[in-house]
């Protein structure tokens, strides 16, 4: 049974930082690429960042490049998203997911999802 649990969300002022974590169980972390998505109220879920299974390759949405950093610690089966210089438009529910097949930024490419953690920037 695969389980992904996000944590680290919260409320922060614009310009602040947050670090999201995604703890995985029931799956060997270094066997799958993973990604972070977000969904704001009334909007579609969008890809924020993706990382290969070995952590050597990363991808970012243009809207977060230079501000967000995705990383992973396979020894801990944990995925991270460091978010700096946060903006009000970053407000959303953030989800981690394991990649299955397809483009990294498409939600349909991912198989397992966490329940999400809320990020609010004011």
Describe the fold and architecture.
Strand 5 and strand 6 form a beta hairpin. Helix content is 0%, strand content 49%. It is globular. The protein starts with a strand and ends with a strand. The chain is mainly β and 122 residues long. Strands 2, 4, 5, 6, 9, 10 and 11 form a 7-stranded mixed β-sheet that branches. A 4-stranded antiparallel β-sheet has the order 1-3-8-7, with no helix packed on it. The protein contains no helices and 11 strands.
Strand content: over 45%
Spans of at least 5 consecutive residues with low confidence? none
Major β-sheet, in short?
A: 7 strands, mixed
Amino- and carboxy-terminal Cα gap: 37 Å
N-to-C order of helices and strands: EEEEEEEEEEE
Structural Rg = 13 Å
| Structure summary, number of beta strands | 11
Mean pLDDT over the full residue set? 94
Morphology call? globular
Helix content: under 10%
What's the number of helices? 0
Class derived from helix and strand content: mainly beta
